[in-house]
Amino acid sequence: MGTYSVSSLNKVVRGPKRANYDVQTINTILDDAFLCNVGYIWDSKAIVIPTAYGRKENKLYIHGSLKNRMMLSLLEAGEASVSVTHLDGLVLARSAFHHSANYRSVNVFGKVRKLEDPDEKMAALACILNHMVDGHWDHVRQPNEKEFNATLVLEISMDHASAKVRAEGVNDEPEDHNSSIWAGVVPIRQVAFDAISDELLQPDVNIPDTVNRFVEQNK
Fold first, then answer.
1. Does the model's pTM come out above 0.85?
2. How far apart are CA 68 and CA 207, in angstroms?
3. Which residues form the signal peptide (predicted)?
4. How far is C-alpha 214 from the geometric centre of its chain's CA atoms?
């Protein structure tokens, strides 16, 4: 699938040996998450907000209310910066200086476009929901006219992107190796537990296969 060209915008400066500009690697990291952090300027102040997203090819989709200040600020700016991070482990070194973490992260930079076409907008909403649980759009009541019209959906083009990954052990100073201080890695991962059905469900409503499959894949 190729690589993203390196520019002053997406170049990894700190720890360049951990940088990765491969499109497939970046897409995989994005697809393994559901929440991203979006940076924007509002009232001359820098703000970062977590929000849900979906990805289709080289586009990201986010949504919010018509008066959402993040969404309106992004539209005004015409561009966005989005980041996603997975914490994979705590790296506990002998020295305080060398404590670290294992992680997979992505930064995306691109242009912002408001989706006006109803079919395109609905498809983007489905993309966001299916990004949470694959195929779940087919098991929900889809937005009615009032809900649909009250929702603002933005497309962010993945014009520039980079990944940064740390997946290794402790990097202590050689002179600390003979100390009596413990060092190692505590692996961390996000897991799913069995779904808990809503108490107000009708008696004949079962948990959808999409939900059970998601739980099984993420136990």
1. yes
2. 33
3. none
4. 17
